[in-house]
Structures are given as structure tokens and as C-alpha cells.
Specification:
By secondary structure, the chain is an alpha+beta fold. 48% of the residues lie in helices and 21% in strands. It is built from two helices and four strands; from the N terminus they run H-E-E-E-E-H. The protein is elongated and about 80 Å long.
């Protein structure tokens, strides 16, 4: 049944966006996490990459998580000489998390999740209408 396939494809989309939202939430939660020692490194932003994968049961490509990696961009250095993680020059290494970018990514993931949910709801309504027509 095509509507069943549609719902399973949308469910796969919801699953990967859910993982993406959790990674974004972790990034935001650690946006100000510094290293415990002056010679340590702060939290490094995580990223999610997707891939298409053939679902043999459905016979279609669905989206999957390829990997959860780390962003290798540079850390920000902030002058805070009294901070416990400050180096000899008074600078603290800050995470490479930009809250604005994370907020935009979160909104995009949220909208994608909602779009997939709407597809599932529309498919369920079509199935229910079909059942109602068969009863009549």
C-alpha cells in the first residue's frame, strides 16, 4: 500500500530530525562550557550528516543518519584573566558554538519534523476516509 510506504518514509525523516534536534540541544547546552584546566580544550560543536539509504522492505531510498561528527572550526579566545581555565596570558578558550547558527538549525529541523508529521497525518486521514467509503 502506497500510503503505508509514505508514512514509513516520513517516519524515517522524523527520526533523523529528532536526532538532529538532540545534537543541537546538546550544542546549545554546552555553548559556554570551557575546559576544566587551562591546557584543556572546551566543548567542540557536534554536527549531523545525513545519507540516503535503500530500504529493501519498502523498495525506496530513505534518509538515515550518516554520522554525528564534530565541527573542526577554531575556538574563540576570550580575555578573562580571573577565570579558572585562563591560560598564562589570561585568555580562555571558548566552544566553537554559535547560538544564532544553532537556533536557525533548530528551527529548520523543527520545520522538517513538522512537515513529515503533517504527511503522516494526511496519510492517516486518507486511510480513514477510504475505510469510511468502503463501509458505506
Amino acid at each position: 500500500m502506497e500510503l503505508d510506504r509514505t508514512m514509513q518514509i516520513s517516519a524515517a525523516g522524523m527520526k533523523v530530525q529528532g536526532v538532529r534536534l538532540r545534537v543541537i540541544a546538546e550544542n546549545l547546552a554546552n555553548a559556554d562550557s570551557t575546559a576544566p584546566t587551562p591546557d584543556g580544550l572546551p566543548y567542540r560543536r557536534k554536527t549531523v550528516t545525513f545519507k540516503n539509504e535503500l530500504d529493501r522492505e519498502l523498495g525506496v531510498n530513505t534518509v538515515r543518519i550518516d554520522k554525528v561528527g564534530v565541527d573542526r572550526s577554531d575556538f574563540e579566545r576570550r580575555y578573562e584573566p580571573g577565570h579558572p581555565s585562563a591560560d598564562a596570558e589570561g585568555y580562555v578558550m571558548m566552544p566553537n558554538v554559535n547560538s544564532l547558527v544553532e537556533s536557525m538549525d533548530m528551527r529548520e529541523a523543527q520545520r522538517s519534523y513538522e512537515a513529515n508529521l503533517n504527511v503522516i497525518d494526511a496519510s492517516k486521514q486518507m486511510v480513514m476516509r477510504t475505510i469510511d467509503l468502503l463501509r458505506a
